[in-house]
Amino acid sequence: MPEKPDEMVVTPWRVEGEIDYEKLIRQFGTQPIGEEILEKFRRYTGGLHYQLRRRIFFSHRDLDWIFRKLEEGEKFVLYTGRGPSGPVHLGHIVPWIFTKHLQDSFQAKLYFQLTDDEKYLYHEEFSLEFTTRTAYDNALDLIALGFKPELTRIIVDAVHIEALYHLAIKVAKHITGSTIKAVFGLKDSDNIGLTFFPAVQAVPCFLESVVQGRNVPCLIPAAIDQDPYWRVTRDVAPKLGFYKPAQIHSRFMPGLGRGGKMSASQPETCIFLTDPPGEARRKIMNAFTGGQPTAEEQRRLGGNPEICSVYQYYAFIFEEDDGKLREIWENCRSGAVLCGDCKLKLADRVAGFLERHQEKREQMRDRLEEFLFSEEERKLIWSRGLPKP
Amino acid sequence: MPEKPDEMVVTPWRVEGEIDYEKLIRQFGTQPIGEEILEKFRRYTGGLHYQLRRRIFFSHRDLDWIFRKLEEGEKFVLYTGRGPSGPVHLGHIVPWIFTKHLQDSFQAKLYFQLTDDEKYLYHEEFSLEFTTRTAYDNALDLIALGFKPELTRIIVDAVHIEALYHLAIKVAKHITGSTIKAVFGLKDSDNIGLTFFPAVQAVPCFLESVVQGRNVPCLIPAAIDQDPYWRVTRDVAPKLGFYKPAQIHSRFMPGLGRGGKMSASQPETCIFLTDPPGEARRKIMNAFTGGQPTAEEQRRLGGNPEICSVYQYYAFIFEEDDGKLREIWENCRSGAVLCGDCKLKLADRVAGFLERHQEKREQMRDRLEEFLFSEEERKLIWSRGLPKP
Fold first, then answer.
1. Contacts of A368 in chain B (CB under 8 A)
2. Which residues of chain B have a CB within 8 Å of the CB of A129?
3. What is the C-alpha to C-alpha distance for residues A229 and B371, in angstroms, rounded to an integer?
4. Neighbouring C-beta atoms of residue A107, cutoff 10 Å
5. What is the pTM of this model?
6. What is the ipTM for the molecules in this complex?
7. How far apart, in whole angstroms, are the C-alpha atoms of residue B87 and residue B82?
8. Which of B38, B76, B37 is nearest to B245 (CA)?
9. Which tens digit of pLDDT belongs to each residue from A43-60?
10. What does the alpha-carbon distance between residue A277 and residue B108 come to, in Å, rounded to a whole number?
């Protein structure tokens, strides 16, 4: 796991903790997203998504190769996922918003893995029943964002294992216990399910290649903390005759408290997609900001958006227009808008978003099956991987 | 793994290496099969199977409990299996013969696990394609022995994983890496698939309980070298609310060489069920015996059946009649029958057995599906273990 970027610097043009994320790039051995890559995105998507403009997605592996393959006529598939340990919060959907943008822009098929097995194995107190149910529930939040059913395959590990296991043991054969210990920090006192799990997380990288019977490039948009999985997967892929998966890495959306990643373990600092809108308003009104102790001081000295969690909510999700985001920044800096007003405006947007999302979410309940990895496809992958009697 | 019982003592009434197997009972903490258990067998099966009379099955865990449950009206299921690393040899079918006897005597359902995943993970050079194909092939040898299709469920791990995985991760959650290292001698340099595998081998103990929705006793007839798996499984079972599986342990059938377990890695010392009968004859004629250097000496001094591999073939499989087995013993001892004749007689029996077996095996090829774990049953177990969306 990467170090937590405790102190973030945020400007209207970039949302980043420059020092920490550059360190991550060096530590993980990834590449920063440079002008050349951005130019490719502009060309293919007719502009730059706000998450690229603000460097919310800031790092990659082999994204240049993904575009090269595209130019050669080889389309990529997308793969991302979630560990269903509880309700989805706003931080989780940041990369999903970008993933939807990629699906729409490139008409790319998405494999989305819900790791009910991992979360069951990780949390002493969780039942598999709970994590599998949570997986279905979290899937509603995903599809409510507008993914295309014909291009989306939601995998629930324990439920859909028939399509995964034969590939997982092929991956597992090439990973030693030492590697797992070194990369994930597991110990002999951890259970053997957790030790095996990284093999299961590797599998969706290769599913489309199995379906098509030829190598298909795979691009993984995900927060950078998932990178260790892909490093291991990239080592194994060529041994199985598959392309190495490419990655594009996002930063963490900060919580409503003072610094740090938004985390479900601190429910007051994060807004769940299932929070009643009033609850979300309350959390926002209690948020940590960059304001001065008094209104008078704030009008005189201006606020400090660099350290303000409310500002970051605008930047990560709730204000896509750079001009308007800059305005928020400058109104804070100048003391023209006080924290209370700024919070109220955000609270309105978040509450409005949640209302619409929760309505959509309920509408999608009956359509979940359309998005789930179908039995037909599972059987296809299973039958391609295993001989018949 | 237990120590190899290099020096076996064999008498017409018992086939055993007394010292080694008693040591195993102490080491593994199992129980010898005593008169009380034998009496139960006599009562339920109308006699004693030759493998019980000769103490080929010599040790157990909770067999008294299995009979107690039976008396209370709770029928047990059987579970055994095989690692499909190559062709089946005569040593493998010794416990299968006894398992068939149990199926017939108790009308017991049998779960038979073919661990294509384990053998793929264990052998560097094996493909999964190979071990899965070998699993189907080995299954023919099993069903050619006369198991009842309506009472037999052959599981091929990688193929039938949908019914196993959710239970395997439940088992895995309760087994640490340390336990696996201590019990199976695995190291950090071993692959993570092997580390996870004991959880998969545990699962069939519990399948019938899931099918019936209530606890069903499970009895595992198998060679004693598999005992470490069951010790681990027995520790986990109550944590998942299942009965501990009971075991009945067999000795190893010796090879045709000087001492030691029959092993596929020494093909000259073991007879494969797919060996051409002529090949089997040749191996038997080259077998190590307890004979004297010359015919004259043998007639004068008599042979030594205690150390004779040919004698053991009679005792383990090819002479079920104790009186006739005693005759072979005494004719050897007295020098009345020389090794050549004794081998010829065995060669005839083995060749005849192989001819019949191989014919039956081919006949069963079209009927394999009847014995394989059906999709319907797999779906049933899957759906009982995992919530629906």
1. 389
2. 387
3. 39
4. 11
5. 0.93
6. 0.93
7. 11
8. B76
9. 999 999 999 999 999 999
10. 59
How many CB atoms within 10 Å of residue B188?
15
List chain B residues with CB under 8 Å of A192. Answer: 172, 175-177, 180, 195-196, 198-199
Q: Which residue of B has its CA nearest to A132?
A: B387
> How many H helices and E strands in chain B?
19, 9
Instruction: Decide if A202 is inside a domain.
Output: yes
Work out how many domains chain A is built from and give that number: 1
Which domain, by its residues, includes A226? 15-256
Residues of A in contact with B190 (CB under 8 A): 176-177
pLDDT of residue A261: 62
Q: With contact defined as beta carbons under 8 Å apart, do B274 and B358 qualify?
A: yes
pLDDT per residue as tens digits for the range B5-46: 344 333 323 334 444 788 888 888 999 999 999 999 999 999
The per-residue pLDDT for range A142-158, each reduced to its tens digit, is 999 999 999 999 999 99
Chain A contact present for B175, CB below 8 A: yes
Contact A160, A373 (CB under 8 A): yes
- Do A192 and B170 lie within an 8 Å CB cutoff? no
The minimal CB distance from B191 to the residues A172, A192, A369 is found for A172
Cβ burial, residue A34 (10 Å; 0-12/13-18/19+): exposed
Q: Are A106 and A100 in contact (CB under 8 A)?
A: no
Which of B124, B159, B192, B383 to mutate: most A Cβ within 10 Å?
B192
CA distances from B30 to B8, B52, B61 (A): 20, 16, 6
For chain B, the first-to-last Cα distance in angstroms comes to: 44
Amino acid at A144: A
Closest CA–CA distance from residue A43 to any residue of chain B (Å):
40
Average the pLDDT over B133-140 and give the result: 98
Is A169 in the B-facing interface, judged by CB distances under 8 Å? yes
Q: Are A204 and A221 in contact (CB under 8 A)?
A: no
Compute the mean pLDDT over every residue in chain B, rounded to the nearest whole number.
92
Q: Is residue A352 part of a domain?
A: no
Taking alpha carbons only, the member of A74, A72, A101 closest to residue A248 is: A101
Q: Looking at chain B, which residue has its C-alpha nearest residue A388?
A: B133
Q: What is the CATH number of the domain that holds B189?
A: 3.40.50.620
- How far apart (Å, rounded) are the C-alpha atoms in residues B137 and B372? 12
The set of residues, in sequence order, having a beta carbon less than 8 Å from that of A230 and lying 6+ positions away, is A61, A220, A245, A247
DSSP helix/strand/coil, A79: strand
Q: Residue A250 pairs with which residues in a beta bridge?
A: A57, A223
How does pLDDT run across A193-245, given as a tens digit for each residue? 999 999 999 999 999 999 999 999 999 999 888 888 999 999 999 999 999 99
Residue B47, Cβ neighbours under 10 Å: how many?
11
Nearest to A233 by CA among A221, A243, A223: A243
Contact A151, A103 (CB under 8 A): yes
A112 vs A170, A194, A201, A207, A218, CA distance in Å? 21, 20, 11, 11, 12
CB atoms within 10 A of CB B207: 25
CA angle, A3 then A87 then A21, to 5°: 20
Q: Does B166 touch chain A (CB under 8 A)?
A: yes
